[in-house]
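quick one, 295 residues, struct below
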Amino acid sequence: MDNFAVMKPFILFGSSMLVVVILMAAVAFSNKKNELPEKHAEIVLRDIGHQLLLSAKDAESRVLPVKKLNSTTYQVSFQKNVGFISDSLINIVQRAFQKNVLAKEYIVNLRNCEQKETVLAFEINGKTGDLTPCRGRKLELGCYVIEFDLLKENTFNSLWLLLLIIPLGLAGLYMKDRFRKKEEKEPVAADAEYIPIGNFQFYTGNNLLTTGHTTITLSEKETKALKIFVENINQVVEREKLMKEIWEEEGIVVISRNVDVLVSKLRKKLSADNSLKFINVHGRGYKFIIEQQPV
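---
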């Protein structure tokens, strides 16, 4: 049983990491599965070029090899000059993409060969809406290239994120519980020595403050700091002294801001007794005082 308790955090951590790895592999496989083969894209685009030539009454010239410009952009060009109506290109492309499920969202640019200027462009996009501003235009006979930019779909499924959060959340809860239990101390013995501080009993050996039926747990650093202040009541405790005795003796380099944060935590934990005060002495440090309460 003791061995299991020792191994429990390692088992939980290992199981969580295994789930994360499996989920990452599943997402990668899902994305890979959704990718269309490059050869399939080239065939569909060549067929679009062929249909375009037929719409221009050209059954003899051929479509040149499709070029892949980058991971999402392809270029179609022709052996000879071609002329057509813009609606023909838009309609042929839409039918081909719908039939072959090549891409649901894409941008098409028709450029002239010499100036590389865009002569016609349109976009099919379910999120922002379709843009086909060049309908009805007649393109004179000339040298053109067509660029197809296949917009990648966001295949991220929020379910994967949920499944990823579950093991990490369980691991986080376990670690939080573990640290909480670590901070919990054994019950204070009836004869345990303590330092009276106002209405509090300060048990330095247990890292505890008690008042009435209330018990407040202190961290190791809070205990060290409060002990220094108690030993120097009504005296200015220099920041350098606190930094040295609380952190630097353990080989940790800190800044004065760490002292301010630590004192702020002590103020909060001692707030039940209004007579206990931490006074900031500008440029030096803090003074811990116990005010006399009116009778």
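The two ends are 58 Å apart (CA to CA).
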